[in-house]
Structures are given as structure tokens and as C-alpha cells.
Design a protein that fits this description.
Blueprint: H1 3-14, E1 22-24, H2 30-37, E2 45-46, H3 49-54, H4 66-78, E3 84-87, H5 96-110, E4 114-117, H6 131-148, E5 153-158, H7 167-180, E6 184-187, H8 193-202, E7 206-210, H9 218-224, E8 228-230, H10 234-251
Parallel strand pairs: 1-8, 2-3, 3-4, 4-5, 5-6, 6-7, 7-8
Helix pairs in contact: 2-4, 4-5, 5-6, 6-7
């Protein structure tokens, strides 16, 4: 691996600062990556597998093959100079050895600086792999990254609360994943400030969360000590809502939307 790839991964890791969270506006192709990368204050990017899949007419949760996922990541990463964290679903593999192989490929073939790795078995948030199996898959992702020679930032997702599970299990999973080599815990289901505080107190490492309307405000998440906020497929929804509003306005012979003249180019 090149020195630049290593430096990008190191930078991505350093950007996860409790209290000064990395804000990643999720992207899904070359043009969204480029446009977001040019926005003031943006220091890194993250993909959203849901969006990457849906814009290809596929369902999230295994709709893409590993080859398709790596190819999509390569296009996105190649369009920008910033570090990119790739939503790599469950590693596109049934076992830990497969996760290690696929993560190594993602780093070597696409140039990823980080990944999200899920702990649920199917497309839904439940059931999950048992804790030992899920931790072994995180460890395998670290092994694959190490084999590629890049300090990949592993953002290990805990789906327990989102799938209706118990708090104690969610925390146990988070800490097991950190022990297995994760750098950050992507803790789903922290729907209010008390849960965010509790997670920050009980997880033995950095915590990332998803932001959406009705969630804890971004400024408050920063004050509490969150290290990363992403928005998943919500940014695709934001884009599609704007497109639909504009289509409605144009179809009704309304004014040309100002954004119809937005300058863009690869």
C-alpha cells in the first residue's frame, strides 16, 4: 500500500474526536462524493450501502455482490482526495475468513480508509450473530486490513437496540468489538440524550451515532462527547425529496428552481 493510503486511514482515525465529532454526509457515487467533498468543513466521506444499492435498483442488505460493492467503492474513492469510509454491510461473507479476504480486497482494490461492519445476520436489525461470532468477524476485518498494510478505521455497528434487544447486551457487544480490534462503535438505537450519555459512560471507546429528524441535535451530541455522526440513506432521501419538489414545481409550470442552475462537473 502507498504511504498516501496509510496517511488517509490515519487521518480518518484522528478525525474521530470525542466532543468534536466527525460529521460525514453519506454519499453513493462519484458525483455526490465530489460535491460533498467540496463543501466547506468536510474532512472525510462515508458511503451508505442502502443508497449505493438503491440507486442500482437493488435492495440493501446483500443486494450487491462483493465485487459490485468493491467496484462501487473504487469509483467513489477515486473521485476525491479525502479519506473515505465504506459501508461494507456484513463483509459480504458467511464466515470470518471471508470477511478478512473481502476487507483486504476493499483496501487493496478500492483504497478504503475505513469501513462500517454490521453485526446482524440478515437485512433486518435482528437476529444478530452471537457475540463471539460477531467479535470474530470484527477481528477478521482487522486481520484483512493488517494484511493489506493499512490501519483501516473499523466502525463496528451494534444493532441490538434497533432490533429490540436489551441494553446490557448492546454494551457487552460494543466492548467485545473494541477488544476485537474495532476503533469506533456505531451504536444504533440511541434515540434520546439519556441513552447517548449512558452509552458514552459504558462503552470503553469512541461512539458514533446516526442523525435524523427528531434525534439528539448535532450540537448537543458534540457537547456530550460523541465522536462521529452519519446519516445513512437519509442523505439520499434528502436529495430525492428536493428532486421531487422541483419536478412538481416544473410540471405545474412554476418558476425555475434556483438549484436547477447548480454548477457541477466531475
Amino acid at each position: 500500500m502507498t504511504t498516501q493510503q496509510i496517511q488517509k486511514a490515519e487521518l480518518l482515525n484522528a478525525l474521530h474526536v470525542p466532543g468534536t465529532p466527525l460529521i460525514v454526509t453519506n454519499v453513493w457515487d462519484a458525483i455526490t462524493a465530489k460535491i460533498v467533498s467540496e463543501a466547506p468543513g468536510v474532512t472525510a466521506l462515508a458511503t451508505a450501502s442502502h443508497s449505493v444499492s438503491n440507486v442500482r435498483g437493488l435492495e440493501d442488505g446483500g443486494g450487491l455482490t462483493v465485487d459490485e460493492a468493491i467496484a462501487a467503492a473504487r469509483i467513489i474513492i477515486g473521485a476525491v482526495d479525502l479519506p473515505v469510509s465504506v459501508d461494507f454491510e456484513k463483509g459480504y461473507a458467511a464466515d470470518a475468513a471471508g470477511v478478512a479476504r473481502n476487507v483486504r480486497r476493499l483496501v487493496e482494490e478500492a483504497g478504503a480508509s475505513g469501513i462500517n461492519l454490521e453485526d446482524s445476520i440478515g437485512a433486518a436489525k435482528a437476529p444478530q450473530y452471537d457475540i463471539a461470532t460477531a467479535a470474530a468477524r470484527v477481528s477478521a476485518a482487522r486481520t484483512g486490513a493488517d494484511a493489506a498494510g493499512v490501519p483501516l478505521v473499523i466502525n463496528a455497528r451494534v444493532d441490538t437496540l434497533a432490533g429490540g434487544g436489551e441494553w446490557s447486551e448492546a454494551v457487552a457487544r460494543a466492548n467485545a468489538y473494541l477488544d476485537a480490534g474495532a476503533d469506533v462503535i456505531f451504536f444504533l438505537g440511541l434515540g434520546d440524550e439519556d441513552k447517548v450519555k449512558r452509552a458514552l459512560d459504558e462503552v470503553n471507546g469512541r461512539v458514533s451515532v446516526i442523525g435524523h429528524p427528531g434525534a439528539v441535535p448535532l450540537a448537543r451530541l458534540a457537547e456530550l462527547g460523541v465522536s462521529r455522526v452519519s446519516f445513512g440513506p437519509g442523505t439520499l432521501g434528502l436529495t430525492l425529496a428536493a428532486l421531487q419538489r422541483s419536478a412538481t414545481q416544473l410540471t405545474s409550470l412554476g418558476d425555475y428552481p434556483d438549484d436547477l442552475g447548480f454548477p457541477f462537473s466531475l
